[in-house]
Design brief:
alpha+beta, 2 domains, about 375 residues, two-stranded antiparallel ribbon, five-stranded antiparallel β-sheet
């Protein structure tokens, strides 16, 4: 109930901000299809927004229409989940079953409320990931697709390079604040374009609500957090985000007159209003014209050619069974004793190897069992 009240209050504030933005963007003007030429002053000024970083792109052509500090990496919050969704989608069939572990069940809010052992279809998980922005589901899907959190993290960074991202580094599948976890507005626009190029994901990110029943009989209803999606005419997605470090963020997309634009807004006092201002400016024919030395310059900046995302198995070498399966102490001793004595190994070295192996494994368990301090995360 508290969550619903908070959402209603947020949407009321967003609606007021969007009303002002739409009043300018939907004011009477030339008929659709009429030829217009923006004035030079409009080309230079760009949209008036409050975000620290932002970018407006035409995903069909790759053209960057306007930007503000587009290449500076910042905490991306749940916009991370665009990459998580792309990687999971390329790795697993939608009908595959994923089982929640303790790490998924202990994820910080926002959550679907999974408990250890509960099951979801991958398609259901992607809906909860992109619509509700469920952090527990992000961990669930990452473990199912990657086999381990570390392997999925490595695959996220490999996918990032494949898609042409420039300055991003990924440490978590859900975007919770973590040192070194970062992405630029430019890189996030590339991810937004990739999401819209996948017909199934493109359908999901424009949904305001989804209802599904999991394989073990749990019924779930998920609702969007996106004020832009519910309020802006022609909105088709994509993802919202917030953490203490990232501030409020959005990757927004809208279509008007057969043309689609993507706006990424990072660390903004009002992402829906900023995205609306950028969309209005872009659909009105705006294009930036600023000196190349300006941090807002789009000169030479263009999205790279689209590359289809690859799955984990295509991005990484097969996981070594030695790293995933425990080796009995007796077996490790026997193996060590069979090594040639020329390598300086004998009976003592076999015993030592066994003891060291147990100590290393025990240390790893202790380290991974330490609980990290939770940070506030809304969506």
């Amino acid at each position: 109930m508290r969550t619903r009240i908070r959402h209603r209050a947020r949407f009321a504030a967003v609606a007021a901000a969007l009303a002002a933005a739409l009043a300018a963007g939907l004011a009477p003007g030339p008929a659709l299809g009429a030829t217009t030429t923006p004035t030079p002053a409009r080309l230079t000024a760009g949209p008036g927004i409050g975000a620290r970083s932002a970018i407006l792109v035409d995903p069909a052509s790759g053209e960057v229409l306007w930007s503000r500090d587009p290449l500076t990496p910042r905490a991306p919050a749940s916009l991370t989940k665009m990459l998580t969704a792309l990687l999971v989608r390329a790795t697993l069939p939608l009908g595959a079953v994923a089982v929640a572990g303790k790490d998924a069940a202990q994820a910080a809010p926002t959550r679907l409320g999974l408990r250890p052992g509960q099951k979801l279809l991958v398609g259901q998980g992607l809906e909860a990931l992109l619509i509700l922005s469920a952090n527990d589901v992000a961990v669930l899907l990452a473990n199912r697709a990657g086999g381990s959190p570390e392997r999925f993290q490595a695959a996220m960074n490999a996918e990032s390079q494949l898609l042409g991202l420039r300055t991003s580094a990924w440490h978590t599948p859900n975007g919770l604040d973590s040192d070194g976890h970062r992405a630029s507005a430019f890189d996030l626009a590339i991810l937004g374009r990739a999401v819209l190029r996948d017909p199934w994901l493109a359908r999901v990110v424009r949904l305001r609500q989804a209802v599904f029943t999991s394989p073990d009989g749990h019924r779930h209803t998920v609702h969007t957090h996106s004020g832009f999606l519910v309020s802006y005419p022609g909105a088709i997605g994509i993802k919202t985000g917030f953490t203490n470090r990232a501030g409020h963020c959005v990757a927004a997309a809208a279509t008007r007159g057969g043309r689609t634009l993507i706006a990424v807004v990072l660390n903004s006092p009002s992402p829906p209003a900023d995205a609306a201002q950028m969309m209005n400016w872009g659909f009105a024919g705006g294009r930036a014209s600023s000196p190349s030395s300006s941090p807002n310059s789009t000169e030479g900046l263009r999205l790279p050619p689209y590359v289809k995302p690859a799955g984990v198995s295509s991005l990484l070498p097969p996981a070594s069974p030695l790293l995933t399966a425990p080796v009995p102490v007796a077996a490790s001793r026997a193996a060590a004793r069979t090594l040639p004595l020329g390598l300086g190994l004998g009976r003592f070295s076999g015993e030592a190897a066994a003891v060291c192996g147990v100590l290393l494994i025990s240390g790893a368990v202790v380290m991974t069992s330490r609980r990290r301090r939770r940070r506030r995360f809304l969506f």
